[in-house]
Design a protein that fits this description.
- With 177 residues, the protein is an alpha+beta fold.
- It has a single domain, classed as Jelly Rolls, CATH 2.60.120.
- It is built from three helices and nine strands, in the order H-E-E-H-E-E-E-E-E-H-E-E.
- Strands 2-8-4-5-7 form a five-stranded antiparallel β-sheet, with no helix packed on it. A four-stranded antiparallel β-sheet has the order 1-9-3-6, with no helix packed on it.
- The longest helix has 18 residues.
- The protein is elongated, with a radius of gyration of 21 Å.
């Protein structure tokens, strides 16, 4: 094929892909949460290890007040980002094989929803381990005053040292336009 024939096809494909691009940005605001915990040394790979963060404040009413919104303005709340990271910058999460992050209501632990996961994890993740967010609507949990989290870790091998870790969560409260 001659070069002058490829250029019109390339331009046509570029224009088509730009015109078909759908903007997924919804109006709304971010809801940020951090929780620190320690992954102890010497835990093994033959069981799933659960780290529970119970009775955390959603600060939902404060967020609504801060952004001049009402509960009726919020169409849904979804997970946009979730990351495990070393507090001191020297963590290595190569011992983690699988991560599941579940949100639930302490008053009804059977009502739960997975909000992020990572399987398989990279073999050499370094100091941060980003999770893949699931996109279910979690407004029913976040519009209450309290929520709880179950962080489940399945390990590749036994932990060699204590790892001080921070869980960073970012939710998006989507609003009507």
């Amino acid at each position: 094929m001659k070069p002058f024939r490829i250029l019109p096809i390339f331009l046509l494909l570029t224009v088509f892909s730009i015109s078909c691009h759908k903007d997924n940005n919804h109006p709304g605001f971010e809801m940020l949460y951090q929780q620190e915990f320690i992954i102890p040394a010497g835990i093994g790979s033959n069981v799933v290890h659960h780290f529970y963060f119970i009775n955390l404040s959603t600060r939902y009413l404060q967020y609504l007040d801060q952004f001049s919104k009402t509960d009726a303005d919020i169409t849904q709340v979804v997970t946009s980002k979730s990351v495990l990271s070393g507090v001191f910058g020297d963590a290595n999460y190569d011992f983690i094989d699988e991560v599941k992050l579940t949100l639930y209501d302490e008053n009804d632990p059977n009502d739960k929803i997975e909000i992020a996961y990572r399987y398989p994890t990279p073999l050499t993740p370094g100091n941060t381990l980003p999770l893949i967010p699931n996109l279910p609507d979690i407004k029913r949990f976040m519009s209450k005053s309290r929520f709880s989290i179950d962080l489940a870790l399945r390990l590749r091998n036994i932990t060699q040292e204590e790892t001080q870790t921070r869980l960073d969560l970012q939710f998006i409260a989507e609003t009507r336009e």
